[in-house]
Amino acid sequence: MIVVMRTGVKEELVDKVAKKLVENGFQIHLSVGVERTLIGAVGDKSHYMDLALEAMEGVEKVIPILAPYKLASREFKPDDTVIRIGDVTIGGEEIQVMAGPCAVESREQLLEVAEMVRERGARILRGGAFKPRTSPYAFQGLEEKGLEYLAEAREKTGLLIVTEVMDTQKVAMVAQYADILQIGARNMQNFPLLREVAKCNKPVLLKRGLSATIEEWIMAAEYIMVSGNHQVILCERGIRTFESFTRNTLDLSAVPVIKELSHLPVIVDPSHSTGKWKLVQPMARSAIAAGADGLIIEVHPKPSEALCDGPQSVTPERFSSIMEDLQKMAVAMGRTI
Amino acid sequence: MIVVMRTGVKEELVDKVAKKLVENGFQIHLSVGVERTLIGAVGDKSHYMDLALEAMEGVEKVIPILAPYKLASREFKPDDTVIRIGDVTIGGEEIQVMAGPCAVESREQLLEVAEMVRERGARILRGGAFKPRTSPYAFQGLEEKGLEYLAEAREKTGLLIVTEVMDTQKVAMVAQYADILQIGARNMQNFPLLREVAKCNKPVLLKRGLSATIEEWIMAAEYIMVSGNHQVILCERGIRTFESFTRNTLDLSAVPVIKELSHLPVIVDPSHSTGKWKLVQPMARSAIAAGADGLIIEVHPKPSEALCDGPQSVTPERFSSIMEDLQKMAVAMGRTI
Amino acid sequence: MIVVMRTGVKEELVDKVAKKLVENGFQIHLSVGVERTLIGAVGDKSHYMDLALEAMEGVEKVIPILAPYKLASREFKPDDTVIRIGDVTIGGEEIQVMAGPCAVESREQLLEVAEMVRERGARILRGGAFKPRTSPYAFQGLEEKGLEYLAEAREKTGLLIVTEVMDTQKVAMVAQYADILQIGARNMQNFPLLREVAKCNKPVLLKRGLSATIEEWIMAAEYIMVSGNHQVILCERGIRTFESFTRNTLDLSAVPVIKELSHLPVIVDPSHSTGKWKLVQPMARSAIAAGADGLIIEVHPKPSEALCDGPQSVTPERFSSIMEDLQKMAVAMGRTI
Amino acid sequence: MIVVMRTGVKEELVDKVAKKLVENGFQIHLSVGVERTLIGAVGDKSHYMDLALEAMEGVEKVIPILAPYKLASREFKPDDTVIRIGDVTIGGEEIQVMAGPCAVESREQLLEVAEMVRERGARILRGGAFKPRTSPYAFQGLEEKGLEYLAEAREKTGLLIVTEVMDTQKVAMVAQYADILQIGARNMQNFPLLREVAKCNKPVLLKRGLSATIEEWIMAAEYIMVSGNHQVILCERGIRTFESFTRNTLDLSAVPVIKELSHLPVIVDPSHSTGKWKLVQPMARSAIAAGADGLIIEVHPKPSEALCDGPQSVTPERFSSIMEDLQKMAVAMGRTI
User: Fold this and answer.
1) Which of A297, B17, B247, B314 could join B318 via S-S bond, C-beta 3.0 to 4.6 A?
2) Looking at CA atoms only, how far is residue D293 from chain C in angstroms?
């Protein structure tokens, strides 16, 4: 890191900062300029945040040089992480499509959707049993009953199951049923939950928070990895901006950026990010063209009767059309689907 | 709500929407214009989100007319809510200052700060025992030991205690020690946590999420209130914007807006919002001038040795100066402090 | 539009609003509910903004139902606008690539780039003669000399020329040289400039403002169209958000949204939006997959010697690779390039 | 500045960067770490942006240490700039209130408002003769006729005149009538306009752009100052964020930040930033408490008949009440009004 001292600062203040750095195991390097004195410091980047250097007299600002994450970084592990669950791989050559309803609503609804998305090429079934809803008056999910239906759908179709967990007290229960545990956007920085999901030996789908920077998002993955679970799949799902025509703004640049900074696989959610079923198809294509390893798409047999997020769910017919488009995209990208 | 149908939509599609609304207990009102047909619907606003009307054929958009919250609204309860804990009131004529370190670091540090802020006029002591940190490598708090020190500080000084809880599994423990339970910005939409804190009969300090709209923030309060606890204090602490000179952008307009929409008390955190101790004093004054019912301020005996958020903590001397300014502000506003 | 009156409003205030609407040529429709009285009003949407209804006593809010633009809307003109300049079409089946340096730096540089991008398939040459720079100390462009070089490059290569104009006093001069006049992001709401470029009978490339909503962007196009020039090409170039890893956040959802709301062609600038040459290639592919009609890409023979925006300029080699990728994308999308 | 080289970069690439810096007059300083090699460079900060170092092979990023502005900086001129026009000072001990209608609508309207705001303590009259409107169908201002009315109002009341100019071709005309030239938010980076207003020897009121960082805003002031006019008044008027309850988000932290970084006076516009007359009063108080040197407030005799921005205009009665509040705030702040 670089510590920038204020103009005309007294030497003793520079010495104090230097001393604190050395005491904390940093090697330092002084650079006295006409306008500013800089102190370069090399050492354990994971500790610098606790030093409160900005609070020391004479310090103008502290500029980090290295990224604050390690295990998730491309520098630490140059090769792509490929997550394998049975014969399904995420992060390899094959593009994976996770599809299903926003919420598990009933046994019939779920089995119908499961069968339908499997036929059209999806390998993983999505569906919420615990739903984070902005309103306490909205449908909150079928809870364990929903998990049972998901397990039944897996048995019937061979699809893998991805479903959200929101509470540390429910992690063990959800892990009994799910193949992939989903951390929703609102919980990206729910640190006790990140530590808890790390304990079960299952892949974790980590959605980007609505206002999370790419760095904070990777740091959230680092929380899971440092607790012993390296099977993290990142999911871009839109960030909050001033534009309100779409529900959120899908940040597709994040896909190649993640590929540069990290070795973890990254997928895209074109349903929640746009909030409109009409935009799911072009954004699904666009995500693959940006280099995403997969997609998570909301499909509902009758979107207008969905208990949750109907406006962004696509019909089975539309889903077929999306899968055809993705085939062409896979060819263009030299990948399979 | 108003349902706007697409241009040139067939009558049968309008009928379908109308029928669904009526079946769900809404009274409807048709308005056929040259360019658009509108369906006005009056009924239980808390249910409309589950209707998925936007997913019905022919629907262009659905425009809510009424706010989605009820218990927290000024319409429901026109008089200001005043929360009383012992002889301390929040939301009344008196301005309350909560002050203390970002994190409880040691028994000595906490007792020293507690004594010092009490002398200068604070009635409530803040201090984190569980700390949500962006990095897994940063100091995470003293946990229950920290809570014990807080309880000891209360006994010694008579100050009330406000401290954060992050995990549903720790709510009962934190509630044993704290007078006010704090929900941090990152957990504003941690719905299981909101329901859990509602169960203990203690006031809740609900910080605004980094990218939460005012409406979503009030909805989070509604989650707590609908679960039976009406003692909610809202806390504006800055929102995330493109401006990076300050840590976040303090949205002081939110103070009079909350006062208009809701009866709940609202305080301001000038420390986390700005991230810079130099800005705490002007923003503290500014918050009171905007009509806030109180402040929560980070104070540390030696900010440069703080284990957490030192750069935004003020020294005891600076805190004295802030309290003098607030005295003048209270006079200008016709309030006491 | 819908005028929502406050709860418990007196009848005479409702009457006043109704009267004002009728006097201004609106047909009205009253809907008296239990909680709110609504006044629906149908009439000339272009005038409602001048009515200041929100300032009338008893009015809670005014909700527009129809979009405020007309000439640019898909409703007004259902078929795609295809702009033809010689044998080049923009907005049709063919994808157009505009390429060239950020700034015209010298005759040699420009001719070299022009030849090079033409060989690789571009039909339109970009290059700034007037540069809007954040710093007054940065290179501001070669001005008319730059325009002359652009004209020479056109003569030598047959490429069309697109270049920016920033000042109403320079519109006539730039129009003498350019085939397409570019309005930069910072000038999207420079209304005198929009009116001035409308006067010359040349296509206008209208970049989206950094913080412009899609609606405001279309309204800026409407300014040009209402002044008599219907040849407007929209260009998405990233919006300003909290994410600072990329220079701006490329909003690719805007592409299908524009296609739904308007008949105008839309292209994408992957260079300015990301600010990093490494991201230009994936984002160029992604833009085409989203349905864009073309791209505008910064190419420089030696980016590290560029006088402007070198970090986001691609080398000739990289540009070849991008064009190969775009070929595959065109096939996948059923278009030509 | 600090140039951060990529991990494991070859020495010759470091040498190339070093050479380029030296050739451009920078003194350099090498720091070879285990993980990164850094090149510190000291020299003319105003030129570094043209070096395109990020485009050189091996460079990871370039981190500026010094602010890119000079004339506007507090370092360059430690004392507050106080602008004097007749016996009115802006930036000194006295708080100045500029008030008047959004747009000049008629001679009668303007004279009535002028008289009224003067009586209540304003010294400067605001009023737009040229209006930047999002819609081409909205009222665009009375143009020169409006300027004449403003001049007449000055003669009758002794108030100074501040009014907006949007087009380089109109600067000379507006300067004939106005005492202070206003650059609106949409034109903050209209660089030809900034250079043009710098030429007339009159103070310039520079509004912050909707998505301008504080640094970009100061750089816009630098454009005016470098062209020879040092009489710049900065005006915070809200930034664009995700929050849509208010028209924009008033960034009051910007006030003390500007005071730290620059010597220029700074005022606040509580009308445009909030878009709601109810919020004008609390935000006006709040701005003064934050340290602002003045306010610019929209006042209209009958807001519901205003041709522009009625919803955010206050009535004469409300304006009286605001002025009373500001009196108390001035006392609390140790200033006069």
Assistant:
1) B314
2) 26
